């Protein structure tokens, strides 16, 4: 395993640096992962050789750009086992994908008295769009509570599901405290009452394979930058039947079939929802990220990350005055904690002085922070390239910080 991880790490240029005189221990992967050589190379190759706008021109560069851009769509469709490439809509990321569903689907499908069900675990991007849509449509937003362990209260969730529920929007894993939700079970329950389901898979993609058809999700949103790909790029997967119900939300080039000065008709899926010149380079680089992920043994990666999580959990639990927020039995490789004596921001700053990158704050999950009555936490999150030595450095440094503030 160590040799395999050494070889893997060698492919990530950003991991080779020192920060504040120490080798970088990058433990902020839930925010964004580092990028392997092939993803960076794909970006360079596009801008150095193939740069042209896609879909329209007949010249050679435009042909290459279009081939690679649409090739990325095919690779992503295959990676998530979408029934067709028409189900894969390119967006700026998870946030835009969820907003696309909110504005082009929910806004037209929901009315007075309908309900959208989320959970207390959600990222702001899976809360705020629904608040906006509820204001416009008169629909009501409900949230299933979490238990003290950070697990979803499934009995309460079931109690909130009814024939009024038109959409259940739920994260696969909490970015703030790591809880993995029983998404497949929730989809089955939601479909029984006739609700559609959107899965926020932002935290899922780098850690396990996702088969959208087996899951039977209606919509799935994710970001490339959390799965070793570029920033500002992501995907909305939608079943054809729900995408056909949705109305275009941004008008412009590429999304139309015909335009007169009076009216327009729409392009086929998925282009109907992709107005304007797209993010060509980042789409192609996301194709490279998918190739990278497919070159990994994802089961072995998941086991490795879970070992790091266990090591971190045990080590941090032994620190005086430290409390881990989120102790669900099924967690993504994320450990979130607070200390009696030190503020998360101070802990984060001191860890950075030791070359250790973690995230501090509310992690775009303010309702969840309120639920646990903390202003924020320190969060360490692990990826395929992290090592037991890095986790040991984290634990040692936190022990030292605890002594400093005692
Ligand atoms: N949902 C979850 C669970 C996330 O972790 C994130 C990113 N922190 C998002 C949504 C938003 O992703 P993006 O900022 O890439 O749109």
TrEMBL record:
Gene Ontology BP terms: cysteine metabolic process
Cofactor section: pyridoxal 5'-phosphate
GO molecular function: cysteine desulfurase activity; pyridoxal phosphate binding
EC number(s) on file: 2.8.1.7
Domain Aminotransferase class V: 26-394
Pfam families, A to Z: Aminotran_5
Domain of life assignment: Bacteria
UniProtKB keywords: Pyridoxal phosphate, Transferase
Keyword Transferase: yes
Catalytic activity: (sulfur carrier)-H + L-cysteine = (sulfur carrier)-SH + L-alanine
Physiological role: Catalyzes the removal of elemental sulfur and selenium atoms from L-cysteine, L-cystine, L-selenocysteine, and L-selenocystine to produce L-alanine.
Entry similarity comment: Belongs to the class-V pyridoxal-phosphate-dependent aminotransferase family. Csd subfamily.
Annotated protein name in UniProt: Probable cysteine desulfurase
